[in-house]
């Protein structure tokens, strides 16, 4: 299968070389790798230039945006800019972070998944992060059928059906909900162990703490599902404040009448799916 990769990169001089090297080692090579230099003021652009000189599959795109590292909008905006520059056909498209190391057979296995399971629309592995002792341990706070936004592969038909990525916090949840809305499945492969070099959210601006609740509002969760999801999140992370932040973000978005990310019909489907999952877990 043919595939292309888009990598948003903002001040990634520490990790970018390792990430791009892991792409070069793939047993199934991409047709194109567009690295979007998003307003970096470190050596990110120089590293991209080294790889564009090394192999013609690499392309550089410079864009100007805010220096604030906010989840969602900044990275999706960079991705969309890269997508606009894509000039080759693809069977699946990949959104990749600049701080990860892929196993060498990662995309060969992703291609096999898409080939062997025609109904799969989104596929990926699992993230591993180093603990204090240097051991790589799986870090996956979401359900086992969720693919982290740092390394998501989308079959072209699914990507087009859901209208691409939403430019907001929560994009890597709403994409999977919309994929299911359009009849596609999510597939995760436990053998695909991706090394995540920087813990999630470490570089985010402090203002980001309210965006999770806002995302739940804009995905039309409603208050009860938002409360349950936020309580579950707070319990997993042992942080009561995250529950309060989520609710504050939810009601703040409701008060300002923030635009929804999904239509009413999609929202009905999402709530029904969420309630089904909640009831399923309660009943064991």
UniProtKB/TrEMBL annotation:
Residues 4-146 form the Glycosyltransferase 2-like domain. Keywords: Glycosyltransferase, Transferase. Its EC number is 2.4.-.-. CDD domains: Glyco_tranf_GTA_type. It comes from the Bacteria. Belongs to the glycosyltransferase 2 family. SUPFAM superfamilies: Nucleotide-diphospho-sugar transferases. This is Glycosyltransferase family 2 protein. One of its GO terms (molecular function) is glycosyltransferase activity.
């Amino acid at each position: 299968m043919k595939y292309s990769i888009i990598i948003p990169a903002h001040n990634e001089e520490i990790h970018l070389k390792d990430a791009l090297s892991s792409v070069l080692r793939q047993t199934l090579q991409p047709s194109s790798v567009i690295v979007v230099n998003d307003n970096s003021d470190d050596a990110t652009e120089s590293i991209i230039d080294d790889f564009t000189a090394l192999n013609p599959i690499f392309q550089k795109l410079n864009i100007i945006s805010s220096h604030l590292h906010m989840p969602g909008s900044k990275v999706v905006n960079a991705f969309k800019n890269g997508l606009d520059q894509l000039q080759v056909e693809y069977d699946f498209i990949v959104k990749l972070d600049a701080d990860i190391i892929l196993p060498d057979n990662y995309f060969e296995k992703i291609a096999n998944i898409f080939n062997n399971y025609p109904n799969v629309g989104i596929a990926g592995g699992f993230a591993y992060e180093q603990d204090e002792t240097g051991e790589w341990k799986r870090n996956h706070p979401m359900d086992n059928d969720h693919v982290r936004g740092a390394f998501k592969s989308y079959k072209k038909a699914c990507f087009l059906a859901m209208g691409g990525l939403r430019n907001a916090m929560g994009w890597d949840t709403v994409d999977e909900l919309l994929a299911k809305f359009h009849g596609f499945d999510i597939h995760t492969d436990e053998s695909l162990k991706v090394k995540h070099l920087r813990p999630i959210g470490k570089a985010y601006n402090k203002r980001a703490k309210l965006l999770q609740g806002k995302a739940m509002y804009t995905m039309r969760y409603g208050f009860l599902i938002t409360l349950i999801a936020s309580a579950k999140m707070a319990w997993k992370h042992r942080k009561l404040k995250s529950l309060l932040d989520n609710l504050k973000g939810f009601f703040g978005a409701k008060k300002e009448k923030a635009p929804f990310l999904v239509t009413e019909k999609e929202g009905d489907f999402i709530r029904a799916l969420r309630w089904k999952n909640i009831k399923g877990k309660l009943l064991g």
